[in-house]
Amino acid sequence: MKRIMVTGALGQIGSELTLALRARYGLDNVVACDIRDAVGHLADGPFQRADCTDTAAIAAVVDRYEVDTIYHLASILSASAEANPQRAWDVNMGALMAVLEVARARDCAVFNPSSIGAFGPGTPALHTPQDTIQRPTSIYGITKVAGELLCDYYHQRYGVDARGLRFPGIISNVTLPGGGTTDYAVAIYYKAVEEGRYTSFLRAGTRLDMMYMPDAVKAAIEVMEADPSRLSHRNAFNVTAMSVDPEDIAASIRRHIPDFVLDYQIDPVRQGIADSWPDHMDDSAARYEWGWSPAFGLEAMTEDMLRVLRGRLGR
Ligand code: SER
What is the per-residue pLDDT across 52-86, written as a single tens digit (0 to 9) for each? Predict the structure, then answer.
């Protein structure tokens, strides 16, 4: 029986993954942690306010709930990280180190998300291989590469069962992302429903990997349930569901909202970050080693996003 702790449980991924984990493993077996107070359905099950850069605070939660698996989602995203690189390093690396140290001492498995941000301008942009050049130019990417290596180190050196995914941009409709470069791909759907138009901060033609949240949740659960004897990679698997630019998403939205207008006001910081990331990763290692297969492509995702948002926003 798994007993799980989720850090960053109020974030974009955490708020949905926590509920999925509770549905799968039992409400009382998943303790949600965040630096903020519980909101919404997360308060229906165990919740602990904790700063996950604090090793003692993490250890206390693990002990109290007899946790054996930590989903470590707390992190500062790419654009916010550029605004304060020193803090991004302290939070992203400090929290991961604290989680791994607790996992080492208490024999916990660890899920650590990496990102397309772990690649850089020297990486092949198309069919980006699982094992390739990783020289990111954003501080976020630097923390992601260091995190991948640290997780592998804790596995090799101490036997910690650490596993991870290189997530693409995640598109969702429950909790907004905050401070990421791929956030436009979420905002475009909200604005399409609310106002019929959207101004993108990334330029037309900026192609990036993306994934709908149900697939991201599925991937995070499946990689942790995978048979370890089949894993020759661990930290971290390329996973993607589509490769799209703002025009592709707009065209998909126009099938449902024909008058939707997309225009552009480029943010040089986020454009620079996006330009340094791959256009389309090769995720065949994940497919081969643990059976990864996304359920949603662009059209199915758009249909679902618009249905949910129209219902919620009453349009
Ligand atoms: N969605 C993240 C970001 O844009 C990438 O991992 O920062």
Answer: 999 999 999 999 999 999 999 999 999 999 999 99
Q: What CATH architecture applies to the domain 4-168+213-238?
A: 3-Layer(aba) Sandwich (3.40)
d(CA 201, CA 168): 18
pTM over 0.90: yes
List the chain domain ranges: 4-168+213-238, 169-210+241-281+296-313
Domain 169-210+241-281+296-313 matching CATH 3.90.25: the answer reads: yes
Q: Which of 140, 142, 213, 271 has most ligand 1 atoms within 8 Å of its beta carbon, as the pocket-test mutant?
A: 140
What's the one-letter identity of residue 97? Answer: M
Pairing, β 69-72 against β 4-7: parallel
Q: Which residues contact 293 (CB under 8 A, 6 or more apart)?
A: 287
Q: Please write the tens of the pLDDT for every residue from 212-224.
A: 999 999 999 999 9
Mutate to test the pocket of ligand 1, among 183, 209, 239 (most ligand atoms within 8 A of CB): 183
